[in-house]
Amino acid sequence: MVCAGLAKEAGFSVTALTIDYGQRHRVELDAAVAIARQLADRHIVLPLDLRAFGGSALTSDIAVPKDGVGEGIPVTYVPARNTIFLSLALGLAEAIGAHDLFIGVNALDYSGYPDCRPEFVDKFQELANVATKAGVEGDRFTIHTPLLNLTKADIAAEARRLRLDAALSHSCYDPAPDGSHCGACDACRLRAKGFAEAGIPDPTRYA
């Protein structure tokens, strides 16, 4: 949401891409639709069922950890997820003649996923410009990561500055049946920490 808001503020026309990858937290798809209505000129929801691969607590019958943000890469890591997502976004961008891709990865307050680090983004941008017709013909792609070096408090503050309704956004890895955040998974803990450190009332519904 904040990433799209910053892209729009910078003068870009926003085409939003949501991947319905079979994740257990289906409520995030509804959140994406609500956010795109406010910030995007076009919104595509693309089905790609990664449950066929498994290997993650978000796509398999594996319990989501609720004991705090720990060391190492947690089981909520979806194998190569951001590589897959950015590849699809790259294909969309080339198809519609866009050259700027925005992704909301964050490498400060995060769960340690390898595909949220600056090294990953830099390498993917290199790949984008050698793997596409547009790239090799000189219409180079740029991967924008405006949230990369922000804390969750910074991101919450940006949402307020941009006058975005943070209540529309969703972070939880294991939401309750009514869509409320569990309050205990890594994503919930980092989200709550961000609002608290920013001194901003947390609009999130927690179970």
N- to C-terminal distance: 22 Å
The best one-word shape is globular
- CATH class division: Alpha Beta
Structural class computed from helices and strand pairing: mainly alpha
Q: Write down the overall mean pLDDT.
A: 92
Helix share bin: 25-40%
Please list the strands of the largest sheet in the order they lie side by side: 1-2
Taking Cα atoms only, what radius of gyration do you get, to the nearest Å? 17 Å
Number of domains: 1
* Named CATH topology: Rossmann fold
Question: Could you list the spans in which at least 5 consecutive residues all have pLDDT below 50?
Answer: none
What's the architecture in CATH terms?
3-Layer(aba) Sandwich
Number of helices: 7
- What percent strand? 5-15%
Major β-sheet annotation: 2 strands, parallel
Give an overview of the whole structure:
- By secondary structure, the chain is mostly helical.
- The protein has one domain (2-62, 73-198): Rossmann fold, CATH 3.40.50.620.
- It is 36% helix and 9% strand.
- It is built from seven helices and four strands; from the N terminus they run H-E-H-E-H-E-H-H-E-H-H.
- The strands form two sheets. A two-stranded parallel ribbon has the order 1-2.
- Helix 6 packs across helix 7.
- The radius of gyration is 17 Å and the shape is globular.
- The mean pLDDT is 92.
